[in-house]
Amino acid sequence: MSRSDELWEMTRAGLFDRLKRAVHGAGGNGAISATSGVPISTLNTYMAGTTMPSLAKLAKIAKACGVSLDYLVSGSASPEVDTKNWPDKLAIVQNLEFRASAGDGLLVLDQETEATPFPKPVVDRLGLRASKARLLRAAGNSMWPTIEDGDPVLVDISDTDVIDGRIYVFTIGDHVLLKRLRRRGRKLLMRADNRELYPEEEEVPTVEPVRIIGRVRWVGRSL
């Protein structure tokens, strides 16, 4: 496991552990869902450790549990909700409102929404500014084994100039895809890593507008 993997897993494990203790101590999932306004089905995924909660959702849960947001994220014992002194180990990265498809593409909602705590050393080592990083999850299996379905993906939205063979999140009309790209003259070509299911390189269709959202820089590890 790389250092990036370790930091990500440590962040997740500590947060989920504190979240469970806080929710159980404040009356359980049902009570906190009713008080916080976070749907019980969503809260259940957080408690099971299968979904990383956004910063906005964590703030609601923290308030309902009577603990500080800083406690849930970093383990601080401070009883007050105070995000001014976030530890150096965490950066706040905006989420994207869609799941980038590593398959046939998904509808783009095209809006940035809530934020997620993310290991700051990873962002720093990649030379990214947190304000230019976006976090989303891949969907589909066309980029397997490089990127698996559900993998967290960190995208640099300031890097939109296509370099042959790098992985990008891009849109074709109202659909978003995650593929390796390269240019040949005026043509833009895309290729999947799962050659068994997607053996051929394809030309990116230009019937609808094409927009490069950014280059994938991390998916549990640097790329």
Automatic annotation (TrEMBL):
Coiled coil: none annotated. Keywords: DNA-binding, Transcription, Transcription regulation. Residues 36-72 form the HTH cro/C1-type domain. One of its GO terms (molecular function) is DNA binding. It holds the Pfam family Peptidase_S24. Gene3D superfamilies: lambda repressor-like DNA-binding domains, Umud Fragment, subunit A. SMART domains: HTH_XRE (SM00530). It comes from the Bacteria. This is Helix-turn-helix domain-containing protein. It comes from Rhodoplanes serenus.
